[in-house]
Write a sequence for this structure.
């Protein structure tokens, strides 16, 4: 199937600055469907290769990202729902529904946030650092996950201000952009690192009740977590400087600690073979979880994509899909990732085994928590207990644990990447089968595999 997005032919004499309707075309064999949408775009700034707006000063970066993001959503939905026999009504319904429910198009929709913020953020002082941060969040076209992270930073920042007023002897304490100092940033970070201690202290317990943190109380923070907060804060403050809203560059003097990651955890081919060969005839549910896990190891997809797969995603022995994570996070001048993975014989056998599944998906419905537990049990039953580095969920420190204890669904994706990377040192080739965006930092964690191979080769000539 091929999906094309283009602008409607211009009337005679029309200029390239007059908006034109955006059209969508879906072709698959003899099927040829076209739909003229209510979206409009300016031809002068249009790039059919994206598809969407190219980078231009005539439109803000936020407008471009939101408009292109809507087109990306439509393409992803079309690809994931298309089946033989789909007609013009199917195409029209998907396009009109996407446009009607989306707030991404600057030419169609009034810019409304539609999101509620925590009560703690409803009364921030005008001109304060917290107010600037909330404005920054509204301006940026963050994905939901990234937006949630920055909103979390804003809540921490606000709690810090109120904490200083209540217990720091500073009744009018407010952080402001123009008066922010290097020491203020360091004091805020120290508060974040120690907040779990304040929260559990009897002295502050009553005060913390106003924030209703019961479901998500402050926890000990790892060094990586603190580094990420500081980097996000510095990125936000740099934005204020570049946009002319501030001339204060004190944040550039605050040093960030380097991010430290444990070596990636993955199964060797031999270990994966043990899981494949495990006799589970007596336990059909565990057998289903094992089949799904092995399939995931053989195609390298995320669990969010795995849940969405249907028989329509299998075409001529290939698995084809648009990753949910990256197709909703489209950047200017960056193409939407279309993943194509050839299915190994074992993967085809597993697909065939669950053919005709009642829910319309490739595999029966399964719960994430139960699936992760099943993966741990599978590895335990196979005796895969070599020690690996993992981050302790309580202390946030790296500790050594048996592999089966650290296992979860993402282990399958890491297994696919690691074993592929050990054989073919081409990140772009592997990324085309995993859906990683261009120049993803993820592959740098797998370079150690290459180092191990080099060490083994050197021993051959020692």
């Amino acid at each position: 199937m091929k999906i094309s997005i283009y602008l409607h032919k211009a009337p005679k004499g029309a200029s390239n600055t007059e908006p034109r309707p955006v059209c969508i075309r879906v072709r698959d064999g003899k099927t040829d469907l076209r739909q003229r949408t209510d979206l409009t775009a300016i031809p002068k700034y249009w790039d059919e290769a994206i598809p969407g707006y190219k980078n231009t000063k005539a439109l803000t970066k936020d407008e471009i990202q939101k408009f292109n993001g809507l087109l990306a959503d439509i393409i992803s939905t079309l690809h994931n729902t298309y089946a033989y026999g789909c007609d013009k009504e199917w195409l029209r319904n998907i396009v009109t529904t996407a446009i009607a429910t989306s707030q991404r198009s600057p030419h169609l929709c009034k810019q409304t946030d539609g999101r509620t913020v925590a009560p703690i953020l409803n009364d921030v002082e005008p001109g304060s650092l917290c107010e600037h941060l909330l404005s920054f969040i509204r301006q940026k076209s963050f994905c939901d996950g990234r937006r949630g992270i920055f909103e979390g930073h804003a809540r921490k920042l606000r709690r810090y201000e109120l904490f200083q007023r209540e217990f720091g002897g500073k009744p009018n304490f407010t952080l402001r952009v123009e008066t922010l100092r290097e020491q203020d940033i360091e004091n805020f970070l120290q508060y974040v690192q120690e907040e779990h201690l304040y929260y559990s202290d009897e002295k502050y317990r009553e005060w913390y009740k106003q924030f209703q943190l019961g479901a998500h109380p402050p926890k000990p923070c790892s060094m990586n977590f603190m580094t990420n907060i500081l980097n996000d804060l510095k990125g936000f403050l740099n934005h204020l400087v570049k946009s002319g809203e501030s001339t204060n560059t004190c944040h550039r003097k605050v040093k960030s600690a380097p991010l430290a990651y444990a070596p990636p955890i993955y199964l060797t081919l031999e270990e994966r073979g043990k899981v494949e060969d495990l006799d589970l005839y007596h336990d059909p549910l565990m057998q289903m979880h094992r089949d799904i896990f092995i399939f995931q190891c053989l195609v390298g997809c995320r669990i969010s994509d795995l849940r969405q797969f249907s028989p329509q995603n299998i075409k001529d022995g290939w698995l084809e899909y648009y990753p949910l994570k990256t197709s909703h996070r489209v950047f200017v001048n960056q193409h939407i990732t279309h993943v194509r993975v050839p299915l190994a014989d074992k993967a085809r056998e597993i697909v065939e085994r669950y053919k005709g599944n009642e829910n319309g998906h490739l595999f029966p419905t399964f719960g994430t928590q139960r699936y992760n537990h099943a993966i741990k049990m599978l590895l335990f039953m196979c005796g895969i207990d070599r020690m690996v580095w993992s981050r302790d969920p309580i202390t946030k420190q790296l500790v050594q644990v048996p592999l089966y204890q650290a296992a979860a669904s993402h282990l399958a994706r890491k297994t696919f990447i690691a074993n592929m990377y050990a054989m073919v040192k081409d990140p772009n080739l592997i990324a085309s089968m995993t859906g990683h965006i261009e120049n993803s930092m993820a592959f740098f964690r797998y370079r150690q595999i290459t180092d191990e191979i080099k060490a083994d080769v050197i021993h051959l000539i020692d």
Remarks:
- Residues 119-253 form one domain.
- DSSP finds 17 helices and ten strands in the chain.
